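User: Can you recover a sequence for this backbone? Please restate the input before giving your answer.

Assistant: Of course. Working from this structure:
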């Protein structure tokens, strides 16, 4: 009775069975043994497993393997029985222990085909859950394949070892198997195989058949573009190709794709991805027409063969180049119409066509008057940069009441793609006439003086008029020769009056110089003019405005009686006689000047009935041109005009020109625009002394220079100039110039002396125009006549340095030898009364100064015979320096008074030859000729002795190289005006010319 059964007692932990031996289960086949090597063989051959490792499992008809060894199979193997009882004579059923456990069967985790005729299988290691370890020593992974039916998994062929997997380490559990049949199903087995086959694991078998990938179709060849054609709305491109080998492909379709390529100029993007272009479903069709393409753009195309198994699809084949679609121009516009929106505006409307290859730039609309041939000449039209905006307003300017032609086209960035022009029908489009401005209201013309007439009016309604100006014209009645009255044209539309001078109206009389008679009555007409003449107002006309009689002579002898800051009092001689005009009227006019040129217009003028005539309202310190007119009111005559000879300044009558600083130049030159009476300097500060000098036409060129010291100036200077009208009022100051404080002379040669000035050369030059340094000498003191040193009043020539403001020492040349001279200097002015006093030299000076020199040639060579090239290690300048030093040492003359130059001499090809000059003494100071010659002779003798003995060793010691020296010629003693040619001043003292430097005088 189960109702009284105890409850279950659960185990404290799960239990795992030990691994079983292979023989505990049968082979799964009724009449086949499973051998240890994994193969099967029929029980009809009792010994069939003997060569295959022995029996691993018994057939299912005899499933029990008995314990007794070597009882069957010819004494080689265990026996198989139908039941346990049948094994009693074989020691019972075979016992299984853990030491007999085979390797645990692996587990296949995945298997797939990764390429044509290739499979990949992956598995994991088998591990007993009980923890028992098989005594299997790993030999290899045994991976086996057998062809199988994909639908039923039925094995269709033998199991074959995959050789690609036999070399894998035990840790590697993936294998790629190649060389298989393409597009074929396979079953897979994997087992771990051991060095002892009895421990081999059972195989793990794939759960289903896996197929290898098919052999894909080959890519097409000769894939290319044929010329594109224009379709109804887009371009059509034909592409063509040759089919490749089909392989395992079961054809489905040809697939063609397109990719729009980017355009560089103007930039346009392309397609980022390939887009469908064409599909063909017959393998025999190998060309395709691709529509919907853009004109003028480039495309790439690609094609592939599509199969029912996508692994059999061919690869894509691209055109090897971008296929450019033919550039078709934009279509002409459609439905063009135009209307007039008023007298000055047209409105055009149209519909756009297909752009094709056109990259839109603008709509271009052109307009011209009918009858004209040139569309571009008028410049009328409009443009639009928005392709979707297909209308445009055209301003025809002032073209009212006119018929116009109009045409439109689409413009492209590449003009070759522009659309064709489309024009309006022949009747064109017409603008209406504008509404005219009204006749001026209250129009009156009257005379305000003998010189001027006044026109008054009020504007009427403007209508369509865009105001341009008021137009007044005058003509002798009945002549129809109208002359414009210009002042009225300057009035704004809001203006209501204008005045005109009768002389400006183009009225000519015999006495005013034209020789044409114009006596009689005059009429004036007046109207409002508009930007469009069709909108001008009608003329307002007034006849018999005035009668003009013959004129008379102009006034003369215009003069200024007086002037102030803002006024000028003028007078002149009248031009008419009492019989010609009993009561003349005068008008004085002025025009300002600036920088010598007229500025602005002549003033309206001051009307005077008596003389003199006072002109007021002027600006102080400004130059004015003046003119006077004379006219008669009864009978009315045209004014006769006369001009003053020159400009006149209002007080104070001076102007300033900025000069600035001059850091280096002693003087600067400026050109004035006005004629000055005189100019003077205005300084910022200090005691600097400056001078001015006028030259050129009317004295307008002014030289400004510094007179006290050599050099320029650092302060900002201004040139103040006085108008000629102030002559006698603002003249040069009556100040005497002050010259240099001292003057010195020293002898120079037998025909020249040197003059020296102090640094401060002059002062008090305010009244001294064009100052010059005047240096004079005379021979034999009071017995001779004074004469100017060269350069005085000769434009500062280079030979006239004694008159040069930049110099403070100079030479006076071409004097008489062996003579005594006295000298003096002063500052000479344009006005001699302002000349400075003479400054006399501090002593007399003589012209008996001579230099006494010793000269000769010396040859220099090495200890052995040397060529010039042997001196490469020593520069020529080193030899010159060494020779000067040795010559100074031997002669006792200062080295600075010795000149050595390289030269040549015949017969001395093995030596370097040098000439030398030793300036030994000066005649004319403390030494007479005999004493100076004695000093030079002593120096020459010392040289001669040394050259014959130790000169070479002294030269070698100074140079640092063993040299020989020989006298080729000299030394000889000579008298010279200058020790060295073009040397300049001789030594200033007599002791062997210590200060005479050839480097200074020869520029070296």
């Amino acid at each position: 009775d189960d109702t009284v059964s105890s409850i279950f007692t659960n185990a404290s932990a799960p239990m795992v069975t030990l691994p079983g031996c292979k023989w505990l289960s049968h082979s799964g086949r009724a009449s086949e043994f499973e051998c240890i090597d994994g193969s099967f063989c029929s029980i009809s051959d009792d010994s069939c497993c003997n060569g295959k490792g022995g029996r691993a499992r018994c057939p299912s008809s005899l499933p029990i393997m008995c314990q007794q060894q070597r009882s069957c199979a010819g004494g080689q193997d265990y026996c198989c029985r139908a039941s346990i009882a049948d094994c009693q004579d074989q020691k019972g059923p075979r016992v299984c222990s853990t030491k007999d456990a085979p390797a645990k069967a692996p587990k296949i985790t995945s298997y797939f085909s990764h390429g044509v005729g290739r499979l990949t299988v992956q598995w994991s290691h088998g591990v007993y859950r009980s923890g028992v370890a098989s005594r299997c020593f790993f030999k290899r992974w045994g991976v086996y394949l057998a062809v199988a039916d994909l639908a039923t998994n039925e094995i269709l062929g033998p199991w074959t070892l995959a050789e690609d997997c036999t070399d894998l380490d035990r840790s590697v559990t993936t294998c790629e198997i190649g060389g298989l049949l393409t597009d074929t199903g396979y079953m897979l087995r994997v087992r771990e195989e051991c060095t002892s086959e009895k421990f081999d694991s059972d195989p793990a078998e794939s759960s289903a058949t896996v197929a290898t990938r098919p052999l894909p179709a080959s890519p097409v060849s000769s894939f290319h573009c044929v010329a594109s054609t224009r379709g109804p709305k887009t371009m059509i491109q034909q592409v063509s190709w040759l089919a490749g080998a089909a392989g395992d492909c079961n054809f489905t379709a040809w697939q063609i794709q397109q990719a729009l390529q980017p355009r560089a100029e103007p930039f346009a993007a392309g397609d980022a991805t390939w887009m469908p272009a064409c599909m063909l479903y017959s393998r025999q069709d190998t060309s395709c027409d691709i529509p919907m393409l853009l004109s003028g753009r480039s495309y790439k195309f690609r094609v592939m063969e599509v199969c029912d198994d996508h692994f059999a699809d061919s690869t894509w084949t691209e055109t090897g180049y971008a296929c450019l679609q033919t550039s078709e121009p934009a279509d002409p516009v459609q439905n063009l119409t135009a209307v007039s929106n008023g007298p000055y505006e047209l409105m055009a409307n149209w519909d756009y066509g297909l752009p094709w290859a056109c990259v839109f730039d603008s709509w271009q609309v052109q307009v011209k008057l009918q009858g004209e041939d040139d569309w571009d000449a008028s410049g009328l039209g409009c443009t639009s940069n928005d392709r979707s905006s297909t209308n445009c307003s055209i301003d025809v300017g002032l073209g009212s009441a006119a018929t116009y032609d109009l045409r439109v086209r689409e413009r492209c960035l590449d003009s070759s793609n522009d659309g064709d022009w489309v024009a309006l029908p022949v009747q064109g489009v017409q603008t209406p006439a504008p509404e005219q401005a009204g006749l001026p209201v209250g129009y009156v013309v009257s005379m305000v003086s003998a010189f001027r007439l006044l026109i008054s009016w009020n504007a009427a309604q403007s209508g369509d008029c865009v105001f341009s100006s008021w137009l007044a014209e005058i003509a002798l009645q009945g002549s129809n020769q109208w002359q414009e009255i210009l002042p009225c044209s300057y009035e704004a539309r809001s203006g209501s009056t204008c005045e005109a001078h009768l002389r400006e109206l183009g009225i000519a009389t015999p006495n005013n110089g034209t020789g044409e008679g114009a006596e009689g009555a005059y009429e004036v007409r007046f109207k409002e003019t508009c930007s469009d003449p069709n909108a001008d107002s009608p003329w307002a006309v007034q006849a018999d405005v005035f009668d003009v009689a013959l004129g008379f002579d102009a006034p003369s002898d215009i003069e200024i009686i007086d002037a102030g800051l803002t006024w000028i009092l003028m007078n002149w001689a009248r031009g008419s006689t009492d019989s010609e005009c009993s009561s003349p009227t005068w008008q004085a006019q002025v025009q300002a000047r600036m920088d010598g040129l007229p500025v602005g217009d002549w003033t309206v003028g001051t009307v005077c009935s008596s003389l003199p005539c006072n002109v007021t309202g002027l600006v102080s310190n400004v130059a004015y041109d003046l003119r006077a007119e004379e006219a008669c009111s009864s009978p009315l005559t045209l004014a006769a005009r006369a001009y003053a000879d020159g400009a006149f300044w209002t007080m104070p009558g001076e102007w300033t020109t900025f000069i600035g600083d001059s850091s280096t130049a002693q003087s600067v030159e400026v050109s004035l625009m006005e004629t000055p009476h005189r100019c003077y300097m205005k300084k910022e500060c200090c005691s600097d002394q400056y001078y001015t000098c006028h030259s050129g036409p009317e004295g307008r060129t002014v030289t400004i220079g510094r007179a006290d010291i050599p050099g320029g100036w650092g302060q900002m200077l201004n040139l103040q100039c006085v108008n000629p009208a102030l002559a006698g009022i603002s003249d040069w100051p009556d100040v005497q110039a002050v010259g240099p404080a001292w003057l010195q002379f020293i002898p120079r040669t037998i025909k020249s002396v040197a003059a020296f000035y102090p640094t401060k050369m002059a002062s008090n030059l305010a009244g001294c125009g064009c100052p010059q340094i005047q240096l004079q000498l005379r021979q034999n003191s009071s017995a001779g006549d004074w004469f100017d040193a060269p350069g005085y009043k000769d434009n500062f020539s280079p030979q006239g340095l004694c008159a040069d403001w930049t110099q403070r020492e100079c030479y006076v040349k071409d004097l008489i030898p062996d003579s005594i001279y006295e000298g003096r200097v002063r500052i000479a002015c344009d006005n001699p009364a302002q000349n400075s006093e003479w400054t006399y030299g501090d002593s007399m000076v003589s012209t008996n100064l001579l230099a006494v020199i010793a000269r000769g040639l010396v040859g220099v060579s090495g200890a052995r015979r040397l060529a010039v090239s042997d001196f490469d290690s020593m520069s020529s300048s080193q030899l010159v320096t060494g020779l000067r030093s040795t010559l100074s040492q031997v002669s006792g003359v200062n080295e600075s008074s010795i000149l050595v130059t390289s030269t040549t001499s015949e017969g001395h090809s093995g030596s370097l030859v040098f000439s030398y000059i030793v300036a030994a003494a000066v005649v004319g100071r403390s030494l007479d000729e005999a004493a100076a010659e004695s000093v030079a002779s002593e120096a020459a003798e010392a040289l001669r002795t040394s050259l014959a003995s130790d000169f070479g060793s002294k030269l070698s010691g100074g140079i640092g190289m063993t040299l020989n020296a020989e006298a080729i010629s000299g030394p000889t003693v000579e008298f010279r005006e200058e020790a060295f040619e073009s040397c300049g001043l001789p030594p200033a003292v007599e002791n062997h010319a210590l200060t005479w430097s050839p480097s200074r005088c020869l520029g070296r």
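That completes the design. Residues 509-517, 794-799, 865-870, 982-1004 have pLDDT under 50 and may be disordered.
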